[in-house]
Amino acid sequence: MKDLQNEKLGFRAEGQFSTANWMSKKTTFICFINHRLVDCTPLKRALESVYTLVLPKGQHPWIYVALDIEPNRIDVNVHPTKQEVHFLDEDDIFEAISAHVQDALVNQSSCRVFRTQSAQLGEVISEDHVQVTRARSYDPRHLVRVDQTEQTLDSMPLQKGGLPDRIRPSECTLESITQLRDQVLASKNAQLSHIVQHHTFVGIVDLAKGLCLIQHSTQLYLVQYGILIEEFAYQLALQQFGSFSTARLEPPPSLRELIGIGYDMELADIHTAPLGLSKAQVVERIAKKLLAHTDMLRKHVGIHIDAQEETVLAIPTLLPQHGSSGVCLERLPSLLFRLGPQVDWEDEKGCFYTLCHELALAHVPPSWGTMRDNSCKEQQEQEAWSIQHVWFAHMLGSRGRCIVPNHLPDDIMTQIASLPDLYRVFERC
């Protein structure tokens, strides 16, 4: 690893690390921060998680990392001997280093060496040499019985071989998008973000109400997943702004017909009747507005509209390689309708902000916040699978890194159980 720099995060890193052909029974981790040998357990764990994908079980890597961080970003008063330090944007710096190491391992994974050993038959082990291993004692009140890195068989169909894909920011140089991305980082709720990025998904509670259960450490939380997915989708839209993948619509539907359906779905009569506007007039105004901005919509957010035929050719998808087919078709009419009155077409930053929010809302699973009939069990199962294995799986720190902002409602995540508290009540039962 040679001269990894990030001026925004204020750090520079270099080091050496073992390839997939080198392995040991114990991790060797050497870390220097500003030329001082320190312990950095979070970085060690982050890099070890990268190696778990390429090394056999029970084998560990050799890692040397030297970090140069701006002195005003470091807090050295966290350990009496200065053996540990804390610094700003730790998670972002660790992710950048882990991503760099992961990319290097991917490039070298085409050539692997596997060592074998012939079995020695006929060896007799004396009873005197048999040792009985005592069980390690632990406190069951604080035992975490789940691991957020574990995977289940039902999550495998969409996963291809190799290392997991990470969501990379697009190379967008627009100042307004840079400012919007910075606003997301500035509004971060550190506690809730840590819970979401290191959770274990438990299950869906109610699709119509948008409720699910997740576990973090020894706590169980009730989450309003609809609001959380909408916020995460907004962050994904900002990250991929200007380089969206798309899903084509065959045959291309009529733009005006979709806007008309969206007019009915949004109950727009309530708002337009006092203005003296008919449905046809509203549809015509929105259609003209979108047709006048076809190039911008195609270039920046991946909405392809044929201006000649007045049809919708393609729609954007935020997670194209991870089981998401793009905008929910149930929400597509509402999206096109809302692009008229809900988007600030006069100001660049305001336009991109509202565009990304409308795009995020259109990606939320269709049962939440709609009048959709959920009587089809197959549709319910597919939607629940998508919520768990597509959306929440990519909120983890090792994948998409969902940032929970401070402006979300306080009840978006409610602790409903704690293992130590349960033991206090039921320990004698």
TrEMBL record:
Pfam name, any one: Mlh1_C
GO annotation, cellular component aspect: MutLalpha complex
GO biological process assignments: mismatch repair
Major place of residence: nucleus
InterPro entries noted in UniProt: DNA_mismatch_S5_2-like (IPR013507), Mlh1_C (IPR032189), MutL/Mlh/Pms-like (IPR038973), Ribosomal_Su5_D2-typ_SF (IPR020568), Ribsml_uS5_D2-typ_fold_subgr (IPR014721)
Domain of life according to the entry: Eukaryota
GO molecular function: ATP binding; ATP hydrolysis activity; ATP-dependent DNA damage sensor activity; mismatched DNA binding
SMART domains linked to this entry: DNA_mis_repair (SM01340)
Domain annotation DNA mismatch repair protein S5: ranges: 1-106
Keywords: DNA damage, DNA repair, Nucleus
Family: Belongs to the DNA mismatch repair MutL/HexB family.
Protein name: DNA mismatch repair protein Mlh1
Organism whose genome encodes this protein: Malassezia arunalokei
